[in-house]
Every structure is written in structure tokens, then in C-alpha cells.
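Friendly challenge for the regulars: who can give me the C-alpha cells for this chain first? No prize, just bragging rights.
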Amino acid sequence: MKFRYLKIIGVILFFFSCQREPVVAVVNEQPIYLKEVILKLKELRAGTIAPGVMKGLFYETIEELIDREVVLTSFPDIAKSISSEELEREIFKNYSRDTAKKFLEEQGISYDEWFYTHRRDALAFLILERLFEKEGKGEPVQDVKRQEDEELSPYIEFLQIVTNTKEDIEKAQELIKKGAPFEEVVKEFSISPEGKNGGRLGPFFPGELPPGFDVCWTLKEG
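First reply, four minutes later:
Bragging rights claimed.
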């Protein structure tokens, strides 16, 4: 399923209005607050991230929040159909509420602000899940056949790890050499957004790789 969104954003760089809370962007009249960006960066332990890397993560985080609000403001009826119980199951599917509170206390993050942000994250995720389910049920037979043909095409998946210190990358390499799963090492050390998904990029099909990366088609797996 393809989505084409028109983003209308009040201001891409944050500004200080007469409101109490600084705003970094506005999507369909829904503000995105600076404190949400800061909260997400704190979750990444931003204090250990180099300034140059931090700048990139700052703007990437804003872009992620904009995408989230596009979904939330575009499908209000689906959002209303999702219960609080579903949202809580999604928010706490990987850890308990008590575990989350302990981590947040250690990082100096407000639980209420964290819950607000992750509730909206979960709501956007569940909306997209509903949309994909609906689209899948209504697919014509020929579309399914075309999708199967695409899935049989050769493709490459990249896994990457991004750290801000040489020491961290050396520790990560040592663990990988000892047989630790690459995805688990990435989750522990990587500071980039895809790190929480095991550093997975792609898939990339023939003709989609940037110049100079075509050599990857000749490399062995791993």
C-alpha cells in the first residue's frame, strides 16, 4: 500500500511563541513540542552522543514525529476505534510499567511526558496496522500475484551499527567475533534510530543501491 502525504508544517525550526511550551513543528494544526524531541533523545542517552551526531538525530527525531502526526491527524476515525487497553498492551509489550518507570527515573525523564509520547507513537502504529489489514483483505488476485513475484526477486538487506566513540565500536566488534547476534549488539551500542530494530536497513532490490554499493551483490552473506 502506498501513501502520499502533503505535509503542511508551520515552522520546521523550533520557535518560542506566546504559549508556555516551545513548538518545533505543526501538522494539521497539531503542535509537536520541543520537549517530545528532548525526551526521545534522552531515551537514547543523549549525554554520551557527540555534538555532530546529535544534530542529525535531532532533525531525524523531528521528522519521525511529523510522520507520526500526519498519520494521527489523517485518520481520526480509526484512532477513535482503538481502545485504551490496546494502546497499553502495545506500549508495554516489551517491558512492564514498573520497568519503564525505573528506567525513566534513572534518566531523569517524566513518566507522564513519556507516556504521552509513547501513547501517540503506539496509536499511530496501530492505525497503520489497521490500514494494512484493510488493504490486504481487499487486494485483487492479480495484485497478490505481482507482490509474490516481487518477493521472489533477489534483494539485499544491510545491518549497520553507529556509535559515537571508537571504544564502543571496538567493544561491539569483540562481542560479534565471540558469536553474539549482530542485532543484539546493535541494540546495545548503536545510537542511530534504526538501532532499536537491530540496525536493519533495506531491503534493496537491483538498481536501488547508491553508486559504489553495487559490489554488495557479489559479496557473501555476513
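The mean pLDDT is 76. Residues 109 and 138 are 43 Å apart (CA to CA). Your move, everyone else.
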